[in-house]
Amino acid sequence: MPTARADLSLFASALAARLPGQWTSEYQQHPTYPDQFATIERLWDRGHVEYIVSQYVLGHEAVLHGPDGQHLYVNDRPLRPGQFVVAPLGPDIEPHHFVGVEEPNGIAVPNDPVRAAAHIARRLLPRYEAARDAVGRSLVDRPEPPHREAPP
Fold first, then answer.
1. Residue 24, SS3?
2. What is the CA radius of gyration of the chain?
3. pLDDT tens per residue across span 25-40
């Protein structure tokens, strides 16, 4: 297993302090590969962050906890030591509520917390908020999964 970069915890804490609203950071190491699954299964990303977590053994992670139940996944960007990846974590709801909702997807950010926070606030948080709003409407419009007729 690759050695965890010592700066992820510090970076995530500094990033949380610079995002709009009240954010906190939670750092966790993963002694084994399956330990990372609990968080990455909630990734709301079908782009490069999902690719990274499916192709690399990541020995650690940080999760930022923000206002109104927002959660952001933060990790190293393999092969790019001067960057991190940040992706939203989806709400814990039934899968049918995500149907028709555009993924907010994650982004790569520089290892400078000030610049990274600006990128996240400008590019990621608006998409995340729009997706959360769409899921909220889905919860109201479709509280139950679509009905399937029993096979004959």
1. strand
2. 17
3. 999 998 888 888 888 8
